[in-house]
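Quarterly update from the structural biology core.
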Amino acid sequence: MQKKVWIGLEGMEFYAYHGVYEEEQKIGGKYVVDVWVETDATLAEQTDDLKGTINYEQIFKVVEQNMKISVKLIEHLAQKILDDLREFISKGDKIKIKIHKIHPPLGAKVGASIVEMEDE
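Predicted structure, tokenized:
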């Protein structure tokens, strides 16, 4: 019987240039990204070998690379990250991503705008 575990990185912070408005793409802003993968890590538990689980360093590199490419919508950004993660995470594993755009320019104090996406 497979035992599923969640493996992830929370609170990855980036300064990036995403946004619909030209000002956002010039000035940039702070983003926080969380990624979780639900996988079967039985092999890693039994062998203490990284090959039996998800290497979260690879997750970080995918997120970091995508944060460097300016896009208008964080929904689009989340999908691009999911697509790139799927290159090394098996289709049977669930991926969840949450992107926080810290203090979006809305004319009032707002902690963050958020997009959360799940791919099964």
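The two ends are 20 Å apart (CA to CA).
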